[in-house]
Model the fold of this input.
Amino acid sequence: MLKIIDKYILKRYLGTFIVMLLMFIPIGIVIDVSEKVNKMIEHKVPFGQIARYYLDFTIYFANLLFPIFLFLSVIWFTSKLANNTEIIAILSSGISFSRFLRPYIIGATIVSFLALIMTIFLVPSASAGFKNFRYTYLNNSGREGMRENSDVFRQISKDEYIFVSNYQEVSKMAFNFSMEKFEGDKLKYKLIASRIKWNQKDSTYTIYNYNKRKVGAFGDIIESGEAKDTVFKFDLEDLTPVVYIAETLPITELNKFIDKERARGSSNINVYLVVLYKKYSIPVSAFILTIIAVSVSSMKRRGGMGVNLAIGIILAFAFVFLDKIFGVLAEKSTAPPLLAVWIPNIVFGALAIYLLRNAKR
Done:
């Protein structure tokens, strides 16, 4: 009988979660289409690009909002079990509350594993496609706005710096490129170009409308031209906006990139670490939110499911609020990124333990 109950609850757990995703993601797509359709028509975006964008949109937002969807789905179907007095019947048969939680934990394990796989293998590619489409076609401020919002200023060695604006992933091209080399506080070399393009075939760069200046003790050497193929010591990823690249790199490449940036003494290292740590903290939140949801909704209340859903919505958005606040805090301050990313799970983990004890009573 216990196995039948496990299958019954597990089926409801996974089924309600999937239905919740299938309900809200199309709504999100419809809202996004209604907001962006004019710009898509204006830029004559090919249908294939639009279809790919909304596939990336689905993966990106399913990963971003999955804790809320999971939390609300567990509250929804558990409240129905409570209102139908099914939970009372299960517990009255001699099953402990801890044993009652087993199929929920199994369901959370399945969802966490799938979320982790999606975060590692699918989300980076979807994030790249999603953000590139928006930078290319949907930016509200046009080209100037894109340049302003995607400027990259990066130190690539002890005494060398690069700057670009409006990096485009599809064409592997960036605009307003400049590179400077110093000796102490004195400028020794400067290169500027209107565009720089990565050539994957031979791992070179092409610079367009360039001007190169070498500062000498007895005079400067100046070179200019329309186009030139050259080799630089920096990587293609160095031309990409900070958050943009962090979210688009697979886990192995992201770890290598973080090691490289740490060796360079990059001031943006916390931004990369936040993205890395969230890949692991978000799947763990499935267990915490599942326990909270069951503890809150397993008792029959006078207000019915509405009260449980109201409590669930408040707690879900409180979790997201804490997640965003401490994520930004880690990126913009000296707060340890690992601690900042895990604080929402720690706080809600303590809340889960407290609610679980009360629910058992």
